Fold this sequence. Notes:
The protein has 14 helices and twelve strands.
Amino acid sequence: MSFSAPAGALSPTKHPPVTLFSGSPTYLMAAQQLRTVAGVIDLDPGIAERLSVPKRSLVVNIPIRMDDGAVHTFIGYRVQHSLTSGASKGGLRYDPQVDLGEVAALSMWMTWKCGIMNLPFGGAKGGVACDPAVLSSGEKERLTRRFTEEVQSIIGPRVDVMAPDMGTDEQTMAWIYDTYSMKVGYACPEIVTGKPVELGGCVGRREATGRGVVYCVRAALEELNIAPEQATAVVQGFGNVGSVTCEELHKIGTKVVAVGDRYGAIRNPKGLDVPALLRYTADAKNKLKTVVGFPGAEEIGPDELLSTRCTVLVPAAMERVITGANAGKLRCRVLAEAANGPTTPDADAILASSDTYIIPDVLCNAGGVTVSYFEWVQDIQQFMWSEDDVNNELRKLMMNAFGRVRKLAKDRNLSNRMAGLSLGVQKVATEQAKRGLFP
Length: 439
């Protein structure tokens, strides 16, 4: 990967550039963010170079027998960006388009996220290139168990701990837990987080990311002197994060006027009936679990969804959805990034000249990994918390991080994104400097 570095960061050397991930626009975006932050905090060039590439990347071949008897081979990835702060931590996604560069970028963002939240983790991410919507339960189980077997050598409760992500869920984590435990010879619930409560999962973990998003939204609205009851919201994505975000916004009185998913988008300027929408998407007759076709709302195009006028826009789906091409069309006061990497650097440049209040992804969606940390701690101690304890601790840590990001942004005249990334990168860089270089 070649680039021109700012002064004091990632200076060119006589050594050839890293090219392993250079074909991925998502990874290049994450690397560009790191270069910018390195200049802001005057990061040591050697440490900046170490942080620019993952510590370990594994690509595996996953052959499984399909329900029709045929053998099909999938490709899987597990990338550990950093182990400096502790075990690496990050989700496992099942998606047809997932690739090594995307997983590497997500692992890097997870490192900064754990740094901002002061968690004893580094960042990791995993993925399997498959479409979970067309796989049977049995095929997904065989795929998950074989993937776990293939990455067994680099995972462990003190090495790398997986969690659900796009296309995976509590059941996926239960299969990983069981497969790993069978290999080591004892029950090891701390090998994964986001698993069923009956197997040592944490109450409130499924809702944690969406709740964390809304904690940040409430803090931003308070700073802007906007009452939640007077605000409107648009949410792109209605999976676990998007649906919980809608539910939590509805609870605080914010009117959700439009939502979208992979199949389409709907809008009602008077406000969607969120409880009814949740029931609609959960209905067994709705095989795709889509918001499309919900009564009392008009269907709109995906581009129109992002440009719908609202107080709060929540991208809660894929990365790189807000670009230089559509950033100028946004009509929101607050952009709450529930997804990872939804806003590209060229879009950031456009939004910087507007009054859009951005809650960056590395802060906004950190509720998931924070409650994953709570689950990991509970499993190690074999002492479970109540949901009130979980939510109170989550709110405390999220608001502490929000306050530190806003203080740095104001003190240094930085954007919220640069402030958040600076806190995350600086924490890991300081730890690397103090630990030194082996040998």
